[in-house]
Amino acid sequence: MDSTVSVQQQFSHRMVKHKPGELLEETYTVKDPLGSGRFGKVWLVEDQKTGDKFAAKQCACRRASQRKEFELEIEIMNSLDHPKLLQLYDAFFGKNDVTLILELVTGGELFDRIADEAFDLTEALAVKYIRQICEAVQYMHGNMILHLDIKPENILCVSPERLDSIKIIDFGFARKYTPNSPLKIMFGTPEFVAPEVVNFDPLGKGTDMWSIGVVTYVLLSGLSPFMGEDEQETLSNVTACDVDFDDDSFDDVSDDAKTFITKLLDIRESKRPNCAECLEHSWLSKEDQHRKSLSAAVVNLKKFVARRKWVRSINAVRAMTRLQAGLKKNDDPSTSK
Ligand code: AMP
What we know:
Layout (H helix, E strand, L loop, with lengths): L18 E2 L1 H6 E9 L3 E8 L5 E8 L3 H15 L9 E6 L3 E6 L7 H5 L8 H20 L2 E2 L8 E5 L2 E7 L6 E2 L18 H4 L6 H17 L9 H10 L14 H10 L10 H6 L1 H4 L9 H37 L6
Parallel strand pairs: 1-5
Antiparallel strand pairs: 2-3, 3-4, 4-6, 5-6, 7-10, 8-9
Helix pairs in contact: 4-6, 6-8, 6-11
């Protein structure tokens, strides 16, 4: 069954090479803020010649190692041409910052929309979303790229009119993957990272599949399966793979959905189903079933979204403080290279 919702892409896939930062202001006019992420802000911008609108992700960046990270992000985005994956349009490297000009997605964050009063979340709709995520990640994995940061805030609705159609954004943590050379990382978002990330063990395609399992759990219940009192407790819940469906919010959720999640939240990376297997799973194959409203999940999701926003704002302040400290250090001639 192909659930792909056709999406109008603003422009065809482009191979982007970064340009000098000075050209940015000559080309685009900055309009409104759209959001903020780990490293910086995202703005609505307009091409001065054509009037076309884009999202500009601007990040302070002075160290050569940070620039290398952005070069990798650009290289990865250049290799990804899929309607469910955000497309890169242009890139500018200034003296102190990097700006990525991205396809504009106007529907906002999926979980924000679901937490709206008027939204009628059903399992059938959840199936539609998870199918789209699996299709996008399947394409990435087919190109030997791991996303490594699948989480609610990186899933956007294409437009306010198309709330059933999503796109995956943010390839800042994405990595190329070669099966015989072990890839290990020490980053991610505690609630959504797999046990092998926490244990600093080799990663694989299953690492993204775990995060899809967590996103599915949250989507159907509004609850975060591994959330602890603090980050340390969250990480130990992840490594203990301590997950259950005991909460009343799961009363209206089908057994098929619970089996699907359980398969993804397997502590053994290699045992988790891949995207093709997920798309074949009976839960994802029955888009038209389970039309009952998941009202308990929506109530919980409001709290989930509010808490995540709070955590993100704290992280943004921390990132800013670290950045300022880094800038001061770089300004010190005794430490400059
Ligand atoms: P990021 O730094 O990529 O995680 O983005 C931070 C936030 O900015 C996201 O969670 C979105 O709310 C918003 N955002 C990022 N990219 C776009 C885009 N292409 N179009 C519209 N909003 C975006």
